[in-house]
Amino acid sequence: MQDLFIQAYTFILGACIGSFLNVCIYRMPAYKSIVRPPSSCPDCNTPIKFYDNIPIVSYILLRGRCRHCHAVISFRYVCVEVITGLSALISVMKYGFSIQALIIFSFICALIVITYIDMDHKIIPNRITLPGIPICLLASFAFPELSLKDAVLGLIAGGGSLFMIAWGYKAITKKDGMGGGDIKLLAMIGAMIGWQGVVFTIYVASALGTVVGLPLMLAKRKNMKYAIPFGPFLSIGSITYIFFGTRVIDWYFHTLQG
Fold it and tell me: What is the pTM of this model?
């Protein structure tokens, strides 16, 4: 019973942080303060009362509509809150209540914001990745399995690999193929999970990008030059490595040997 209470508390706390991430996702691309003014309805601009801003619960009670103007509230707000709550829960389940869990959860929060902004605007905010790179390097001291050397190599491998791909594509096609935001994002990811994690992340991101991208291009009747945000796939790949990377790699090599 105590474990269930702790898990519920962790999820609720994470969902509350997810509510703040929704603010970041909405305001950061517009270069607005993420602190002031308080949240308001985007349709009628009425400030949202605290009892209408309870993660997940308020959306259900209000049936997905603004209390004042009855405008539809995007279900995506709830998705972000649920994803963040689950991220907090799985971080604590893996690392316990520790500095490692806090670091991993904070890292995932940054990736959640990056993912949704990239999907909406096809940009990755420098305000997250640039300070994120040195912060992730410092975070390596909290993980015995990740040395500072591994973190630095991860930064170089992450940023350097995508830079070379982008440079090569432009040299051949004379057009930009991959944005600088993706390069800085993978550099940040590499600093967090090391060069092995970068290899895993690129592989998973490329596979997911192909699986998702091709049907999307066919559905929209676009050609191979159709721009698909790569940030979400890099984020998914890195999170997969953090929680399941070792098991996936062991399974892969076991399959090859068997």
Answer: 0.90
